[in-house]
Amino acid sequence: MGSIAKKGLQQYLLQLQQHPLRTKAITAGVLSAISDIVAQKITGIQKLQVRRLLLKVLFGVAYLGPFGHFLHLLLDKLFKGKRDKSTVAKKVLLEQITSSPWNNLLFMVYYGLVIEKRPWIQVKSNIKREYPRVQYTAWAFWPVVGWVNHLYVPLQLRVIFHSIIACCWGIFLNLRARSMVLKKA
């Protein structure tokens, strides 16, 4: 690894140790930005929608990073830091029946109401139509990520690992939300 990259990683890990919540929130915001920029380009948006981008960053900083931080602390506390396969399976199951449905629903509501400024009746209709597909896809994808995360990744890096994978998931959700708009038009 180059000396600049190595120094940057060391500085990042130091910030993560000294200011875990702030570092995870900022990381989630940056990864939300990357996810949205990629999604905008993939969907053919020519000029970057800055308002949308900033609102996605806000969602990452204000919600995704802090939620992940406290969720992983809570799971570790509930299961006393154990990482055997039986405990990991319980953590993954708990995560999938609680935070996964909530996070996907919240994102879809936020995207429709705040980012796209659509009326609640339209957002509700789109969620009724699209949410089951999004959640079933999440349940096919995220348990594997959760398994790897809880079994192999140290607690202080779990939110970061999750956020990196969520960057790709965010692209999927953006494309899904975009297809909801295109079907309506």
Structure description:
The chain is mainly α and 185 residues long. Helices cover 87% and strands 0% of the residues. Helix 4 runs antiparallel to helix 6 (120-152) and helix 6 runs antiparallel to helix 7 (155-184). The radius of gyration is 17 Å and the shape is globular.
Give descriptors for this structure.
single chain, 185 residues, mainly alpha, 7 helices, 87% helix, globular
The SS-based structural class is mainly alpha
Sheet with the most strands, sense and barrel status: none
The helix/strand order is HHHHHHH
Low-confidence stretches: none
- Please state roughly what percent of the residues sit in beta strands, choosing from under 5%, 5-15%, 15-25%, 25-35%, 35-45% or over 45%: under 5%
Number of strands: 0
Shape label: globular
Please describe the topology of this protein:
Elements: H1 3-18, H2 20-42, H3 50-78, H4 85-97, H5 99-115, H6 120-152, H7 155-184
Helix pairs in contact: 1-2, 2-3, 2-7, 3-5, 3-7, 4-6, 5-6, 6-7
